[in-house]
Design goal:
Elements lengths: L1 E5 L4 H10 L6 E5 L8 H7 L1 H4 L4 E4 L8 H5 L4 E4 L14 H19 L6 E7 L21 H20 L3 E6 L2 E2 L8 H10 L4 E4 L5 E6 H10 L10 E4 L3 E4 H12 L5 E4 L14 H7 L7 H20 L1
Parallel strand pairs: 1-2, 1-4, 2-3, 4-5, 5-6, 6-10, 7-9, 8-12
Antiparallel strand pairs: 9-11
Length: 318
């Protein structure tokens, strides 16, 4: 089983590759050009296990310039996780980077895939495509993204649909809900919260802190994503991947105070533009099609991320 994973050095991508490689019949070509806010040395550290694995090959090339036809030869499955992340930075002149890395790259990869006999092309999308919704959100809810980032990811979804309908590319779309855990990007909330708390600095909260998220632990996300390769009757489907527990930002701060055994000061700022007040995934389809059930509690997941962040910054100080 030959698999190509874009964004293989990233937060979810590196965890996905390790999960896939637990099957001894899997060989992976990982493609990554190390864009995004996480320093390259941390991404490289995240990949130590993969770089030493005999069934993993890393290609460090710009995904807009790479010869996809060459690297897709013999590939059975494509996992397209690469892209420019982040809601808040997608406004203004940086939007062109989102168009290039989230739309143009996706189109190039789909174009190269239309003449390959792939078994599945799995595209990672985001709950940001839904916008503001009330209650549990199912996959048939109308997409109404609130940010340029969400618009670029939704555009990627539409490209998947038209390449499936026009050329038979066997696409599957996954919508991730607020993934956290070890290797999380340095611009993401939990990473910033934990780092600042460890440094004795105030945590910056946008809005009143009562906004809630459906937090998804990264290994739960990786297992669900890997399961798509083996699942039947999923081509053409869009599937939510969410977590076991929802919580508010203030709930997270309280839990961090417990785990770190210290009082955390808060600095409140105006709410961020482009972010919904609440997210909550209906996982009915994931349970039915992927036998998905998240099993890492929020407290356990935060413990693991705290240990990871302590480790990477201690390592960098040495």
């Amino acid at each position: 089983m030959n698999i190509l994973v874009t964004g293989a050095a990233g937060f979810i991508g590196s965890n996905l590759c390790e999960t896939l490689l637990s099957n001894e019949s899997v060989n992976i070509i990982g493609v990554d050009c190390f864009i995004g806010p996480t320093p390259e040395q941390i991404k490289t550290r995240n990949m130590i296990t993969l770089l030493n694995h005999p069934r993993f090959t890393l290609i460090n090339e710009d995904l807009m310039l790479i010869d996809w036809e060459k690297h897709l030869k013999g590939i059975d499955y494509v996992y397209h996780l690469a892209g420019m992340p982040g809601v808040r930075s997608s406004w203004g002149p940086d939007f062109s980077n989102y168009v290039r890395n989230n739309i143009d790259v996706t189109q190039r990869l789909l174009e190269a895939s239309k003449n390959i006999r792939l078994k599945k092309f799995i595209y990672s999308s985001t709950s940001s495509v839904y916008g503001e919704k009330t209650g549990k959100v199912s996959e048939d809810a109308k997409p109404e993204p609130l940010s340029p980032y969400g618009i670029t990811k939704l555009t990627g979804e539409y490209l998947c649909h038209v390449y499936r309908k026009s050329f038979g590319v066997p696409t599957v779309i996954l919508r991730y809900f607020t993934v956290y855990g070890p290797r999380q990007r340095s611009d993401m909330a939990f990473h910033k919260f934990i780092k600042r708390a460890l440094e004795g600095k105030a945590i910056q909260v946008y809005g009143d802190g009562k906004q809630t998220r459906d937090f998804t632990y990264v290994t739960d996300c990786a297992k669900a994503t890997a399961a798509v390769a083996y699942a039947e009757n999923v081509i053409g489907e869009t599937i939510n991947i969410g977590g076991e527990e929802r919580a508010s930002i203030l709930d997270i701060v309280t839990l961090l105070e417990k785990l770190l055994n210290k009082k955390i000061n808060l600095q409140f700022y105006n709410g961020a533009i482009g972010e919904p007040k609440h997210t909550w995934a209906d996982l009915t389809k994931a349970e039915r099609l992927l036998s998905y059930k998240p099993n890492v509690s929020l407290e356990m997941g935060l413990k693991k991320e705290i240990n990871y962040i302590k480790g990477i910054y201690k390592k960098n100080e040495q």
